[in-house]
Specification:
- By secondary structure, the protein is an alpha+beta fold.
- It folds into two domains: about 180 residues, PAS domain (Beta-Lactamase, 2-Layer Sandwich); about 230 residues, Histidine kinase-like ATPase, C-terminal domain (Heat Shock Protein 90, 2-Layer Sandwich), CATH 3.30.565.
- The chain has 13 helices and twelve strands.
- Helix 6 runs antiparallel to helix 7, helix 7 packs across helix 11 and helix 11 runs antiparallel to helix 13.
- The longest helix is centred in the middle third of the chain and has 61 residues.
- The protein is rod-shaped and about 175 Å long.
Length: about 500
């Protein structure tokens, strides 16, 4: 049971143990020092009283020798009464009574004759006085003797009166022990009040420093407990910015967290690289198989376009088919890093006919699509990748908008930058999902394969731009920023080795 209680004490939080142990040490030290000082103080006060009383007794004893030799009682009374009359009330240093005894332990003279009459035996005043008489017999003392009886309220100082080698009598100086104790308690009370003042200063300081040391340790403990689940945050060193062992511990912890964060980023990049490699191996074989029949289709379509009997509507339809096939070809080229696709500068009509391609899906989903194209000139960006980027983003936006939702997209070119923005209503995307939105095979939509946004991301990267996704309230927004050259893009022949 005792071990269990002790164990509970040691299991307390360090925020409590540090102040409590510090307070306990301060209290124990204070009371130990105070007790020792009080003990020494009482001993010094008693020793001072005895030394002063013995000195007074020796002086009076020398003065009383002539009076004792001539039996001059009145003169002896004056001598022993003088120190008593000059004393201050309740002053233990000065004697309360002075007695002069003969060799037969009878009172020769006293400072208070009413209480101690002449020629009365000392033993008749009680056990303490009888013990004193036996203690100071003429043949037992040759120097001042201190005597204290448990039943007496007085401290006795016996000084022999000696003339040459002759013992004439004994002088007894009686000091009040209650007065001595009262003086000691008075000085002890002052010391106790001073000790309480010191405690009132030290205990709050101890509590403050204990709390200041324990608070960052508690925070460090809570952060360390998170390591098995996630990488914790760094500590704010402003709460303890000293260079001692604790300060170095907190700095080392922050360095450890920084290393873990760098390791997590590296692992994430390695995982992404592995996924990209897996997708590359998967799509490489597919892309090579697509390029060969696609080249045949483009050749047949080109031959068909050169016929003279085609009306304007057929020409427009063949143009849409050609741009769609070129878009497929460039999408395949995006999957093959070594591929070099045919590049043509972007025009407004490249983005206008996308709405025609999506018309069936818009009607099926009952989604409203609005476009805002503010660029009119030819932009020096490959048209096919930009069309594929916009088509992928709009397809995802239409599916995410849901029934009776809306999708809006805009395209503008200014300050050597081409900006493409797609917005839609629908369920917001969680922050954890935004972090992995452009990774391959990561899809948060039922039936999705997780490649559309990844291909979009690859196309944006190949064009030297960047893409970002945000989700606020009930609106999801994708922004693509691409660098736009001033000169038109020349057509580059396809690398036949990739088909």
């Amino acid at each position: 049971m005792r071990r269990s209680i002790l164990r509970r004490v040691f299991d307390l939080s360090i925020a409590h143990k540090i102040p409590l142990w510090g307070a306990a040490l301060i209290l124990v030290s204070t009371f130990s020092v105070a007790t020792l000082l009080m003990y020494r103080s009482y001993g010094d006060l008693r020793a001072s009283l005895i030394a002063g009383s013995a000195s007074l007794g020796r002086t009076l004893a020398q003065t009383l020798i002539p009076t004792l030799l001539h039996d001059n009682i009145w003169r002896a009374f004056e001598l022993v009464s003088a120190p008593i009359h000059d004393t201050i009330a309740n002053n233990p240093v000065q004697p309360q009574f002075i007695l002069v005894l003969t060799r037969k332990m009878k009172i020769f003279v006293s400072s208070d004759p009413n209480r101690f009459p002449m020629l009365t035996s000392l033993r008749q005043y009680g056990t303490a006085y009888a013990q004193l008489a036996s203690r100071i017999a003429p043949d037992k003392i040759a120097s001042p003797v201190v005597f204290e009886a448990p039943t007496s309220p007085y401290l006795f100082i016996a000084v022999p009166i000696v003339d040459g080698n002759t013992r004439l009598g004994t002088m007894i100086l009686m000091h009040s022990l209650p007065a001595l104790n009262f003086m000691f308690l008075s000085s002890s009370l002052s010391a106790a009040l001073f000790g309480l003042l010191v405690l009132a200063i030290l205990l709050p300081i101890n509590w403050y420093w204990g709390y200041r040391m324990a608070t960052p340790l508690l925070r460090l403990t809570r952060l360390m407990e998170q390591i098995q689940h996630e990488i914790p945050q760094q500590m704010e060193l402003e709460t303890y910015d000293y260079g001692d062992e604790l300060g170095r511990l907190f700095s080392t912890y922050n360095q450890m967290v920084e290393t873990l964060q760098e390791k997590a980023v590296l692992e994430h990049e390695m995982l992404s690289s592995e996924r990209l490699a897996a997708v590359g191996r998967l799509t490489s074989g597919i892309a090579h198989e697509i390029n060969n029949p696609l080249a045949g289709l483009l050749t047949a379509l080109d031959t068909l376009k050169h016929r003279d009997n085609l009306d304007q509507r057929s020409q427009h339809t063949l143009g849409i088919l050609e741009r769609g096939m070129l878009q497929i070809k460039d999408t395949v080229a995006a999957l093959l890093v070594e591929a070099r696709s045919e590049r043509r500068s972007l025009q407004a009509r490249d983005l206008e006919d996308i709405q025609t391609l999506l018309q069936g899906q818009l009607q099926k989903q009952q989604v409203t699509l609005e476009a805002e194209l503010t660029f009119t000139r030819e932009v020096a960006i490959p048209a096919a990748p930009v069309r594929q980027i916009l088509l992928n983003l709009l397809t995802n936006a239409i599916q995410a908008a849901g029934s009776s939702g809306w999708v809006k997209y805009s395209a503008s070119c200014e300050a050597s930058q081409f900006r493409l923005c797609v917005r839609n209503t629908g369920t917001p995307i969680a922050e954890q999902q935004l972090e992995r939105l452009f990774e391959p095979f990561v899809s948060y939509r039922e039936g999705g394969h997780g490649l559309g946004l990844w291909v979009t991301y690859q196309l944006v990267q190949q064009l030297g731009g960047h893409i970002e996704a945000t989700s606020e309230d009930s609106e999801v927004r994708f922004l693509v920023v691409l660098p736009a050259d001033e000169a038109p893009i020349d057509e580059v022949p396809v690398d036949e080795g990739t088909e």
